[in-house]
Amino acid sequence: MPVRATKRGTARTPLHGDVDVLICGASFAGLAVARELRGSGARVLVLDRYDIGERATSACGIPTVWLSALGLQRAQRQSFSELVVHTPDASVRFGLPWSFSTFDYHGLCADLFAQCDAAFEHATVRRREQDVVVTDRGGLRAPLIVDALGWRRTLGTGENVQPPEAFLSRGLEVHPGGSGPDMEIWIDRGYVRAGYGWSFPAAGELRIGVGSFAPRDHVREPTARLAADLDAEAIRYQGNWIPHKLRPPVEDGIAFVGDSAGHCLPLTAEGIRPALYFGIALGRELRAVVEGRSTKAAAHARYGGFHAAHLWHFTWMLRVQNLIPRLPPSGLAGGLRAMRARTVSDWAFEHYLEICHPRIVGEARSPTTARLAAA
Ligand SMILES: Cc1cc2nc3c(=O)[nH]c(=O)nc-3n(C[C@H](O)[C@H](O)[C@H](O)COP(=O)(O)OP(=O)(O)OC[C@H]3O[C@@H](n4cnc5c(N)ncnc54)[C@H](O)[C@@H]3O)c2cc1C
To answer: Which sign does the torsion angle of CA 56, 57, 58, 63 carry?
Structure first.
């Protein structure tokens, strides 16, 4: 458990000035953008209300290939070559063509930040006034501003849509001590009408939670019940809203990435690798601007095109998210059993990984060009 290191009281001295790139939010998306700007010579400042890696924002499950692509294996806690899915009618074990891993949030964010040459400051972002970002410590000006602040999309224009009206799921988990060999999922209306429960072991800790695609359905009681059913203590709660629909990637001169742009995948609520993936794409476009190879308008347009090229994946996953709660449990169990054939499950999981594939990390060309060329 990371020690609270966020500056408080008199340590929160005034913060003013201007930088070349201002990245608001120091989690997966914001740090991925900053990483791509390393060595560009730009003055990059990353802001967060908390210290880097201080507050975990997820169960921290990710395809292992993403950890190795980014050189972040040190944060890995436990790895799984199978996924176990429970329904009221059957439990199905899928062999995975690639493994999933759980990781330590603090360790991963610290190692990712170590790959950047950006400065970091604690500040709570309040709003934007033209090209000034207003924080609790003062105003900061930058020609290139990134909102990587998560689902609240604090720097968006107009009235921000708030839950439960917004296209948001809700997720809550507990982190008791414990161990287990399997990464497990429960699709069971006994826990949640539309959504799923999970247990992700992380070497000495279990991350047990419930997510609901229906934002009005509460998940605290089912989360505690799932933990009790697994003989685990419901302690160390952490939860948040999770977007399940894409939102404009650029608005009024600001770029949005990660949850603030709705980059979390519907159905699975996997948002870490999309945040890293789109963060890398945005970071490369901004790098072209600070190196004088592109203009801000062109970079934003290209990033917008990259985001739009993924729309159909997100739309399809949202359709399946909407369909699964309507299936009778017997139909769901039958469908899962049919998918158990190794050729079918390999095909499905390989396609799923393709949506935000880690090969982007090694791509030398602009990701936009690469994707458009491949299309
Ligand atoms: C319970 C739960 C479990 C999940 N488990 C997984 C999982 O196992 N795997 C997976 O892939 N996805 C998971 N997700 C989804 C995943 O957490 C998100 O999609 C992912 O964190 C998005 O990354 P991000 O960088 O865009 O935003 P975030 O990780 O939400 O980061 C936003 C950052 O902005 C900072 N911030 C916010 N507001 C302000 C402000 N006003 N001023 C300054 N700083 C601010 C925050 O402190 C934070 O550091 C889970 C979500 C939940 C709720």
So the answer is: negative
For a pocket test of ligand 1, which of 57, 174, 256 has the largest count of ligand atoms closer than 8 A to its C-beta? 57
| Distance from Cα 244 to the centre of ligand 1, integer Å | 13
Q: Express each pLDDT in 254-297 by its tens digit.
A: 999 999 999 999 999 999 999 999 999 999 999 999 999 999 99
Is 3 contained in some domain? no
CB of 102 sitting under 6 A from ligand 1: no
- Indicate if ligand 1 lies below 6 Å from the C-beta of 50: yes
The angle that helices 272-290 and 28-36 make with each other, rounded to 10 degrees, is 30
Query: In CATH, what number is assigned to the domain containing residue 80?
Result: 3.50.50.60
Mean pLDDT over 62-73 rounds to 98
As a whole number of angstroms, the distance between CA 269 and CA 62 comes to 11
Tell how far the Cα of 60 is from the centroid of ligand 1, in angstroms: 10
Whether 303 is covered by a domain: the verdict is yes
Q: Is the pLDDT of residue 66 over 60?
A: yes
Burial class (CB in 10 A: 0-12, 13-18, 19+), 118: buried
Range of the domain at 353: 9-374
Of 277, 251, 255, 254, nearest to 264 by C-alpha is: 277
pLDDT score at 365 = 53
In a domain, 2, yes or no: no
Count of domains for the chain: 1
CA of 182 to the centre of ligand 1 (A): 24
Give, using CA atoms, the residue closest to atom 4 of ligand 1: 58
> pTM of the entire structure?
0.94
- Residue 4 falls within a domain, yes or no? no
